[in-house]
Amino acid sequence: MRKLLALAAVVAVGAVVTASASLAEEKKEEEKKPMSIHDVMEKGFKGGKSLFRAVTNKKKESTEEQNKKFLGMLKDMAKQKPPMGDEESWKKLTTAMIEPAEMIVKGEEVAKAKLALKKAASCAKCHKAHKPKE
Ligand code: HEC
């Protein structure tokens, strides 16, 4: 009986370990999944208080956390296919934003990079080419 109990305990522990391992894997999977273009727009670009405005603000310095978060969003965006339009053009438009955003994160020529990022992130230009009309 004791042996059986011990065996049951081993099996139970094994099950718990396996379950938590797969949970961890799931979590990793979740982290790897890029933020959808829609969410990047809603969370990073939309409105006067957006991350985009904060990161490109000439007068007020953005925090490292804001800069990194925005860069991450841009990279997520670039990984995906645009809902409309040419992929070549999408790559070009998104890469044009990633380069200056990387410079801001690294603290290289920040003032220049902010201007470049602002210019590259042309809402109208990109929407015309890649945002489906409702
Ligand atoms: C490099 C391309 C690109 C740039 C730059 C860009 N957008 Fe977008 N935006 C898109 C695409 C693509 C969609 C459509 C997403 C979809 O339908 O999944 C979109 C959609 C949106 C939406 C609607 C949310 C949605 O997904 O329906 C808002 C709001 C928005 N953009 C705001 C902005 C603002 C403000 C700027 C400029 C500061 C901007 N975007 C710059 C590509 C871009």
Automatic annotation (TrEMBL):
What superkingdom heads the lineage? Bacteria
| Keywords for this protein | Signal
Q: Where is the signal peptide?
A: 1-24
Which protein are we looking at? Cytochrome C
